[in-house]
Every structure is written in C-alpha cells, then in structure tokens.
Amino acid sequence: YRFRLLILFALISLGIILFLWLNSSNRVNVEADQHIDITPTQIRQIQDIGQWEFLSVNDEELIDTVKRGFFSDAELVRIYYGTLRFGIDLHKAHPHWIHVENDSIITARLPSIELLDSNFIDEARSRSFFEKGKWTAADREQLYNRAYRMMLARCMTPENIKTAEANARQQFTQFLKAMGYKHVRVGITPR
Questions:
Q1: Which of 2-6, 11-15, 67-71, 88-92 has the lowest mean pLDDT?
Q2: Calpha distance 84→55 (Å, rounded)
C-alpha cells in the first residue's frame, strides 16, 4: 500500500514538473494602449452644442435728450438695461478644429469669442425715468441706438474678451476631460 502511494506521489510530482517545464516559455504581458482617437461622430456631437456662453455682462445706461422749443423744452430720460453674452459658436469652427496630436493629446482650436446675441437690450425692463413733452417713435429709436452703442463700448472691452477666453479654455478643457481624455490642449482663434 505504501509503495503504491509512493508511486502515485512520484507520478503527480513528475506531472507537475513536466507541466511547469513545458509552460516556462509562456508569458502574459499587459500593456496600456496610449493611442487615443476622437471620432467624426463625437466631433459632430460637440459642434451640435452650437453657441456656448462663457461670460455675461449686465449693464444699464441712463440716456437723455432735450428738444428746444419756443415756449418750453421737452426732455426725455430713459434707463436701458441689457445683458451682453460673450462666447463661441461651434458652428463657425474651422475644419479639423479638434484633432489628436502625437497619439495622446486632444487639441482643440475654438472659434474666436464673439457677442452671441446682438439684441441684448431688455426692452421690457427699459423705461422712461423722466418724460416731459411729446416724443415720437423716431426719437425713442435714437435713444435706443445711443444706449446700444454705449453698452457695446462699455462691455465689449479687451479685458472682458480675455476673461471669456480664459473661461472658454477652462470649461472646454473640463468638458473634454469629462469625456475621458486625459491630455487636452485648448486654444482660441484670435479675433
């Protein structure tokens, strides 16, 4: 009985040694593929976002005018409220605006920062502060146009454009990283 047990043990040991020797050249390697890619479908889905706002500036302008009359002067003072929204329109992106460099970096060149809506004066909130005399629609239109130009001059400054560009870089970088890309570089097309 002991002899059979010893032979069985020797055969099992020989089988294990033979198995290990035959598989000694087998190796398993796991390597991470660092190559990334962005598909045309993903690019189209990003572009379908369209306009993307990165800065909004609220402004109010007090505009007045006086019409000299023979017996009395007419005066009109109006307050105009507006919100200027600065951002990008991804539909204006150049071809190949987003691509992969060196198989590992997503590079995006965003369109330049622009005023997203040219109708930024809130006419529902704008009101007459003081009104004396008779005023025509043309007179009111002239005041509106002055307020429009003043808001543009006050709000569309190089500082606000730079702030919107910085916000665009930061938010778009976070957006691409949330899509799973680790190495991202975002630039803005100069105005």
A1: 67-71
A2: 8
